[in-house]
Amino acid sequence: MLILQAFLASVVGGILYSIIGIIPGTDETATMAPVTLILVLLGFEPVVLFSWFIGIIVAMQISHTIPTAMAALPGSTMAVPMVYNCSIAKKLGIPHIAMRKMAAGSLIGSIVAIPISVGFAVLLAPLGGYIKPYIGLIFTLGAMIIAYMSRAKWGAVIALFPFAFLIQGLQMVAKQGSGKTLFISIFMGITIGPMISEIFNVFIPHIRNNQMRDKPNEIWLAPDIKSKNSFYPNPFKVLTKKQSTYAVGASAIAGCTFTFSPVGMTVMLGELISSRSKELYDRVTTGLGVQDAVSNATYLGELIIPLLAFGIPLSPVALGPAAPLFNAPPVFTIDPVVNLHTYMVHWEYIVYGIIGVIGGSLFAYPMAIKYARSWTEKMFKSVSHEALIGAFLGLICMLAYYEAGILGIAIALTIGVFGGILHNIFGIHTGVQFMGYYASGWIVAKVMFLMEIVG
User: What's the pTM value of the predicted model, to 2 decimals?
Assistant: First the structure.
């Protein structure tokens, strides 16, 4: 029965996020985290939640190839590294081939990453007992490393301290106002920060004037070409033998790199492998197939390894879109660790992970292979990006209200404005802020301790 529930959840999630993934510029954290959090709070079984999340990752990673290939617009933030090769493919008149290579690579990356990530996590699991007593220190060091790796460098490291005090100050306000500390409102505030900051710009005249447009954006789609592919073609036959080998090898490496940025891994491994091809067509199609395989494998590895080995979010994906699977009080907590790490055994990660890959790709993969252009055209004409943002903003306000009423919404908006400015203006991205949130208690306690010694 649980297997059927998991399959249905991954299929439904796959259909929903295939549609969302087609819309250019969609953010994974802003779209995946709120819905997943609702399912966690509704009490869905851990294995069902796991299949759901694998399914929506797979679906979104495949469907974001469609606008990326057809219009050279990133379908999501993970598709940004592929825009350059897609623009070349479009000039060569082969966007449909590029799209199929990316979809096949994405599916291969998913298939390879599940067993590799589970195996690597099992090797790391014995270290979990040594790590847990030092969670606060680990989060702080992790926050500093991720902050330094951002565009803001030392500025991001320094910003962690006022951000930690802001978080803990708002927690004190929340405790006085609602009798408890908050998670959902703060988490969602960080999630929607970049969007809130963009909306806030409307109230600042010189920024508003710079962002004004006098006509809608024009997007050109490449013409469609009929093909005789089956409904669900074998991804290893869509890629050449050499491309399949590269995709499998790169996915196996990427599936173990849970502490690195998925975008960074996609750029690094994609460039490393595509540079081995001299001819332009081969370089572009090989690069895109491998990049999408790496992108998906890294994403899945960053979910599975911290979840299975430690139960605490120690990767950008675990801190962002997958955060509700780690920490969603009162259902899941990280201190003590009570989440999917506690409830799932090793073999379930493989079985329910494969179910998630199958369910998530059942709609997205054939659509990307056969109906990409017609679906892209329909989405561009029927669904505006602003409508999608508005829908998710409404969802987030509902979640914050559920946790702490009007106070929850006020705290989410406060964090959103502050965090959004850090993200949009200073390049201190939401991954740094999520890590800063988890480290904030330890940082404030140690700073206060030092102040007592000095003063």
Answer: 0.76
